[in-house]
Every structure is written in structure tokens, then in C-alpha cells.
Amino acid sequence: MKPRETFYDVMRRQGITRRSFMKYCSLTASALGLGPAFVPKIAHAMETKPRTPVIWLHGLECTCCSESFIRSAHPLVKDVVLSMISLDYDDTLMAAAGHAAERALEETIEQYKGNYILAVEGNPPLNEDGMFCISGGKPFVEKLRYAAKDAKAIISWGACASYGCVQAAYPNPTQATPVHKVISDKPIIKVPGCPPIAEVMTGVITYMLTFDRLPELDRQGRPAMFYGQRIHDKCYRRPHFDAGQFVEAWDDENARKGYCLYKMGCKGPTTYNACSTIRWNEGVSFPIQSGHGCIGCSEDGFWDQGSFYDRVTDLTQFGVESNADKIGMTAAAGVGGAVALHAAVSALKAAQRKTQNDVSEEA
Amino acid sequence: MTDTPRRLLVGPFNRVEGDLEIRLEVEDGRVRAAFANSPLFRGFERMLLGKDPRDAMTITPRICGICSISQSAAAAGALAALTGASPAPQGALAAAILHGVENLADHVTHFNLFFMPDFARPAYAGRDWHETAVDRFTAAQGSAVREAVEARAKLFHIVGLLGGKWPHTLAFQPAGVTRAPTERDRQRIRMSLAGFRRYLERVVFGAPVEAFAELATRDALMAWTAGDAGLFLRIAHDLELGKLGRGPGRYLSYGAYPLAEGRAMKPGIWADGQHRPLDTAAITEDLTHAWMLGKSAHPARGVTDPDVEMAEPAYSWCKAPRLGGRTMEVGALARAVVDGHPLALELGASGGGVLARIAGRLLEIARTQILLERWADALRPGEPFMADTPPIRDGAGEGLVEAARGALGHWIRVEGGRIAGYQIVAPTTWNFSPRDANGTPGPLEAALEGVKVAPGEDTPIAVQHVVRSFDPCMVCTVH
């Protein structure tokens, strides 16, 4: 059997120059927050390690994750990652159709048994024996189990695969179920968001392909490097929150001044994601910058927490903060003025400490 | 072997948005009957019940990751109709820009990533255009595919600026948009549009977009040789795609881009050789061949109650929308026909088909680029982008927009301040609908009848051309 190709071989075959390859390595290092010392390490790994194949499956979903993914910031990174993936199996983009596509899946699994990464977009609906999502004549849940059996690790792309997302909203008509509730014997990394940010997706997959292991995860199974902070922590409107300057109605004078959207229902204070730092569409903007509050799409259960336009009042529902509901209570009570705000800020800080304590206690 | 009727199950389909399966009955080397099944059901209309009506603007876009703005716009439109909100003129303009960018990007994606790669298949080896097609359009690797993905990502900077993020943009509200662009934003939007124009003129059309938008006859179209559009037309001529996959020859459009001065593309229908006004009261959703319980009804009174027995004769989760009892084709071609564009009329009047649908889409790419530039020039940063939002009240509302793939309607009913009824009829619901009570097949099913199937073909390539020519969005179809 001829030795498996390395990533470097694949890239060269795709017409990527040595110079571009080195640039890719340094971009990857910086995207992942690693120092310049890691560049030769990444390069060495890519030159010597056999390519890790990726199988990308779609369940009950809207394809927004793929849509986000193919728009990631650096054309080179996207090119490389996309060409690596498209070599194997992806049912939205691939060339083959029908039975040929099903065979391609079987062959990939057979050939790379135990060595491939399974990327799942969407989730399996379990109601009525899974008949709400039939793929190749079989319920998607069977395809998922089949592909997962010989996978080295699984990536749960987006809120659907990670938590269920809006299709799991009450009454969850199809019993849409996140991947980790169906597959329990494989390492699973959750990359939530609806969709996740493109750069987060390429960052995660590049890390796994390059270092052949999962990045550091938080206690919910998310990559800590991207989900370690709340939107609120790095929000450019944060000073207005601290100063008690809020938008009161859409496009009012305060909105034009870029005040805080907390009163318009922004879920930034309870949402862990990188939107306010990496931003969207090649770093152009993110929802809060467009004048609309965050809806918390990377948090478990965001779809059933009352209206998206209600103020955050009971943060415990999110399972993230233990006592931060005080912020909501204080502000919602409409006390107004500096005193209430000061209390709110203190509560937030207290909440942070509490969360940290929780983590260390659990660890 | 070709003499005995045989059954083919084609699917799962790749390079369409979502899941699709088609059952074919083949006789004498041709499709005798086709049955389109949308095998994916999520139940959005059920989840919306009991929710805050405003949440429809956040939940419905998640029906689809490729036309989420269309869903936002339809939901905002339905709420505007319910509350009597009237969008600020500049807000409507910003919304049109956001929506136009999505539609434009969808067409470019469809052409490069979903439709053209079929011509790079080995089945066409030996044709004089095949090598070029392989080089340009091999799935996920062709040079055109890369260029399109890159150009599209840059175009979406506009959605970033005006809407914060894409997919699942949040800026749409009944009375306008949440972001008032600054002069700097306006300049950046113009720059992004200029960049996209360069891409279109260098790669897709090989000539000024105006020249393509002004094509008025089929002969002039077929004489177009420049760019990837020229390559497609050469292929279409060689494979006679003009005769393949004829539709019902009846077209419906809600009219694209509601602006203060009216819709930028006219609403209406084209049937029996003439333009007519559209009467949405004549729309019904027929359930006889859908795995749904209940009676056929107008969407304002419709319900979504899946039949877990999946009882015969139903064969799809998709309902069958009809206008006055008849099937209608929707999409870019339908929009241009209804709008009265001479080329579209000539192509569409004879029943359309694969060539007409793709040409209709290319035409709309050119026209949308021009519209977007005009709208960007008309942005006035100092003016209001959101009018007063009246409170939610009990009642009903209808939100009609044109998504890339055609007519999209939302019907909302509110009781006690909560959603009591919500029905969505998506473009592909029209095009890929199953049979109705009279046994009349949906537009795609009818278009597939008579299509050639070569002996031994289990995923007939001509069938794939027809299916993809509609640019189906299956996740929207059944939601």
C-alpha cells in the first residue's frame, strides 16, 4: 500500500506554493493564539503527517454552518481547508450524486477506519423512528451512527449539532437531538453558534488537522480559545453599559450614538462566543454593531428563553451564570441611575468570580 | 431492458440546498412519471405557536442558511401588515440592499457551485467544451468555483456593514432596519459593489453587466460568447437545454424589493399568454399527497399537523400550493417574465425549461447589480432608518417577498398577543410540490416527464440538470 499523502502533498497538488504554505502556517499559528515559535512546528507536522480525512454529514439543519464556513476570512486558509475536506465526503458541495455519493461515503470510512474526523452539521430527529430526516432511504440517525463508529473524533458544528437549536424549540415536533446525546463513545467537540463564526470553524478544524488532537475544551465541550469570554466582556458598547447609557427604541438618538442594547433584549451578558472580537463576514461587523441585540445563539436553549426582545432577567436558565440574575432584576425594576447600575456591574463581577469558583470546584 | 418500465429512486441529491429524493417511473428510455419527496421535516410552524410574534423574525430565518434574509424580510413584512407599521423609506432601501445582496450571492453560488459542475462530469468527455468545463467547474476545485466563493465573501461585507452578520442577519424590523449606515458605510458599500461588478464583468459575463441586462431576444442571448455565461450558452446550445425540463408556462411573482415608491420588480402573474394582477386570496395549500393531516386551505387558515403514519397516497412532507387550483412556477425567470423583461418573456412564454431558468438567473444577476448600485447611491445617512413601531395587536398579516428562488409568503395570526397561527409557503414549495387532489403533478414533476434516461443510468444526468435548474432549496420547502 502506498503511503498516505501528507497535507503538504495535498496543498502542493492543489497548486499552493511553498511560500503560500509557510504563510498559511504562520496565519494558523496566529489565528490559534500561538507564538511564532510554533510556525516551524506546524510546518513540520503538515509536511510529515499523513493527511487526516474529514467526512462532513448534514442532518436536520439549514446548511448555515457550511455557508458560514465557505466565507472564512483568509482565502488561503479557506482554500486549503476546503480542498482538504472536499477530497472526501461532503454532501452539499461534492461532485457525485445519489448512489455514487453513498458509495463514496462507505469507501472513505472503509479506507480510513479509525483515522478520520467526522464533522456533523445539523442533528438527528428521533421522533417516529427518525423519519423526519431520511437520507439515502434511512433515517439520518443511522447514517450518523454508522459514520461515527470508526471516527477518531467528532466535530458538532453549530447550535443544531451541539444543542438542538431552534428546530428543538418547544414542542420540538421532531425530537431534534444533539449529537452527543446519540453518540456517547467518541470525543466530541462542540462549536456552537447559529452559525458559528467562519474563522472559529477553520481555526478549530485547522488545529485538529495540524496537531492531530482536540484543542483545550471548556466544561461544556467547547474550544476554550474561542468560547472563553462573553460577548459582553469584549463588546465595544460595554462602556455605555457601565455608564448607564442605553438604547430605548430602535434607531433613536441613543442608537445613533451606539449606546448599549441591553434594554432592547441583548443577550451579550450571558453569551460565550467570539463575535465581539473576531466579528463576522471577514471581521466587518457583528449583530450588536448592526444595532440589534445579541440573541445568544451559541448558548444551550437560547431558542426557548422567552422573547429575543425581552431583557435578560433570569440568567440562571442558561446554566452559565449562577447568580447574575441580579443584574436583570436590578435593571428591570427600573430603579435607574448610577446606584442601580453600580449594583449591576458588581453583580456581574461577582458572577464572574462565582463561575470561576464553580469551575475549579468541579475540576 | 429499456422496454420494461422500471423505477428509479434518485437521491440523496447533492449540490442542492437540503435533502431531496425523486422517484422516477421510466419507460422506453424516458421518464413517464416523477414524484418529488422532501424527506426533511422540522416543524417550524408548530414551534412558532404561542411565541412572542416578534420572535418570528429570529426563528424563521433559521429555516434556511442560504436565504435567511428572505425569511427575515417576509416575517418583518407580515408583522408590518399586522401592526400597520410603515417602514421608513430609507429603512426600506437599506432592507432592499441587504436582500438584493443575498439574492445576488445565491444566484452566483447556484451557477458556480451547484449547477455548472454537472457539465464537468466524465459523461460529457469528448464534447468540445468539456475540458473548459472541467477546468472551470469541477466540484469544489474548479477555478470558477474558487473565484465565485471569494467574490461572494467580499460582497457579503455589505451585509456585515448593514446587518451585522450573515447568515441569519437580525437587522430587519417591521418599521425599517436597526442600523443607520454612516457616510463611511455608504462608501464601503459602493466599493464592495464596484468590486463585485469587476468580478461579474471579468468572469461571469466577460462584458459590461448592462450589455447582458439589455439582451432582448433569444437570438441575441444565444449569440453571447463571453465569460462563463458564454460557456453555459455554448453548452446549452450543444445539449439542447432549451427543450429540456419545460415548466407549466405559468409564472407567479410577489414583486421584489418593496420600496417607498413601490416594488422594484412588479408583482403579478403570467398565465395563458398574458399578465394579470395577483390575488393572494386564490392561494391554497393542497394536502392530499403530503404527509399532513387536515384539509386544503388558504395559508392564513392553514395548519401543519404531520401525519406520523405517513399514509398513502402521500409521498412527501411538502404541501402543494396552487393558485386558483393551478400550479405556478416561481423564481428569477418568473420574476423577469412578470416584470415584463422582453428576453424573459420570449424564453418563458414557450414553457421555459433549463436554458430559460439559468438565463433568467443570469439576467437577474446583471439587473440586481445595477439596482444595488443605484440604491447605494440613494442612501441618505442622516435620515431615519426606522419609523415608529406600533405595538403588536391581535389580528392577521401577510408578508410577501421574493427570495432568490422565487415567491416567499408568511401568514401570521396573533391572538392574546401570542402567535396563534403561522404558515410559510416557500418558493420550492411551489416548484417541487407533490400532486394535488386532481392528481396534477407539481411543476418539477411535470418538467421531468419525458426526460431521457440512458440505459444503465441510475442517476440520470438530464434529470439532474432539470432538478438543479430550479435551484431547489429543500430546507425552505418543508420547514
Automatic annotation (TrEMBL), chain A:
InterPro entries: Cytochrome-c3_hydrogenase_C, NADH_UbQ_OxRdtase-like_20kDa, NiFe-Hase_small_C_sf, NiFe_Hase_small_N_sf, NiFe_hydrogenase_ssu, TAT_signal, TAT_signal_bac_arc
Organism this protein belongs to: Ruegeria intermedia
Gene3D superfamilies per record: Cytochrome-c3 hydrogenase, C-terminal domain, NADH:ubiquinone oxidoreductase-like, 20kDa subunit
Domain of life: Bacteria
Subunit comment: Heterodimer of a large and a small subunit.
Record-stated family: Belongs to the [NiFe]/[NiFeSe] hydrogenase small subunit family.
Positions bound to [4Fe-4S] cluster 1: C62, C65, C160, C194
Amino acids binding [3Fe-4S] cluster: C275, C294, C297
Keyword Methyltransferase: no
GO cellular component, one term: [Ni-Fe] hydrogenase complex
Domain Cytochrome-c3 hydrogenase C-terminal per the UniProt entry, residue ranges: 227-308
Catalyzed reactions per annotation: H2 + A = AH2
Residues reported in the UniProt entry to bind [4Fe-4S] cluster 2: H232, C235, C260, C266
NADH:ubiquinone oxidoreductase-like 20kDa subunit domain sequence ranges: 62-207
Claim: Signal is one of the keywords in the record: yes
GO BP: anaerobic respiration
Location within or outside the cell: Cell membrane
Catalytic activity, EC: 1.12.99.6
Co-factor(s): [4Fe-4S] cluster; [3Fe-4S] cluster
MF terms (GO), sorted A to Z: 3 iron, 4 sulfur cluster binding; 4 iron, 4 sulfur cluster binding; electron transfer activity; ferredoxin hydrogenase activity; hydrogenase (acceptor) activity; metal ion binding
Lineage: Bacteria, Pseudomonadati, Pseudomonadota, Alphaproteobacteria, Rhodobacterales
Keyword set, alphabetical order: 3Fe-4S, 4Fe-4S, Cell membrane, Iron, Iron-sulfur, Membrane, Metal-binding, Oxidoreductase, Signal
PROSITE patterns linked: TAT (PS51318)
Protein name per its UniProtKB record: Uptake hydrogenase small subunit
UniProtKB/TrEMBL annotation, chain B:
Name by which UniProt lists this protein: Hydrogenase large subunit
Chain residues that bind Ni(2+): C64, C67, C473
Protein's organism: Ruegeria intermedia
Origin organism lineage: Bacteria, Pseudomonadati, Pseudomonadota, Alphaproteobacteria, Rhodobacterales
Keywords: Iron, Magnesium, Metal-binding, Nickel, Oxidoreductase
Cofactor: Ni(2+); Fe cation
Database matches in PANTHER family: HYDROGENASE EXPRESSION_FORMATION PROTEIN HUPK, HYDROGENASE-2 LARGE CHAIN
Cellular component aspect of the GO annotation: cell envelope
Keyword Oxidoreductase: yes
Locations listed in the record: Cell envelope
